[in-house]
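note to self — DONT lose this again. spent like an hour looking for the file last time. sequence + predicted structure for the chain T wanted, 337 res
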Amino acid sequence: MAYFNKKAQSLTELATFGSVLLLVLSFFISYGMRYNYQQEIQMRAFRTALAQAYTNTNRPDASASVVLVDDRHIPDPRDMFGAGSIVPVEGGAEVTWGNTMQDGYLNVTNPPLLPTIKYVFNDRNPANRAEREYKTAGYNYIDNAYPFYVILPGNTAPQLITWVNVRNYQPTPDSPQQAMVLLPNQDKEVITELYLKTAGPTPGYIKFQIIGVRTNPPNGGDGTPIDQIYLLSPSSGEINPNYMQLNNDVDMNGTPDVTPANIQGLLLEDKQDIRRSGTITIQETPGKTISTSTYSFKDKAGNPTTITHKIRSSSGVEEINFPFERGGVPSTWTTQK
């Protein structure tokens, strides 16, 4: 009698701890696949952005900003058919090719070349591949009636600049027109950014990147007076890069600047469980057991699992839908009894 009790105890312990062991094993399998997919797509995003920045010279700073998103199936070993969840794996990179002083200046007349961010979904699957590209800035200009400030050499705070001291810097006819400030010591300083003073109870400064100038007369050479300076404006683009992630900034009223309700860019969804229908049939014959199973990642109505990605821009939320459809061929196993 004691022998049977020990055997029953062993079976109980095996059933209990075996299930725990399988649960831990399934966790490591899932975690390992996620980590592998994440590392692979991050490196692929960097190489994609690097190639685009090198070949695309029609962008500010010869730069490229790319976000890759792959819908990956993470199987669940605990499931009879291995069906688990579809997890969006994201990798992004921003690369600037070049570091010369004039790289930030754009051609603002024909038409302006503005920075963009490109989202690429399922780029290795031609049937489900999709691209969306958004401008991450617009542009505006100030004229010679508008005061502006610049941090000059030897200073730590912005200094008011008089427009009469602003000139065009163009050492050769084929070089881009840039803004320079004439200094009291007969020196000159090329500027790539400036500051505008904000109004309100607590005045401050907002920094802008200079992307172009207009001389007076037009198309003047080196040293010609400037009457307009063109500025890059992130807030007037299709997606504001300052609103692409949550932060702790607040506006003048103390209200959080970026919230889940106004965050822009890709809005990643949580994992989506796979809807699947499947059957398993076991037929016993003398001396062996035949097991046949079929599965399909569809519901009983025949509708495939749909993955939805959302991108919020200044014009609203765009939804991009992908059907995730995978069927299994019948499988048959024969085991001896």
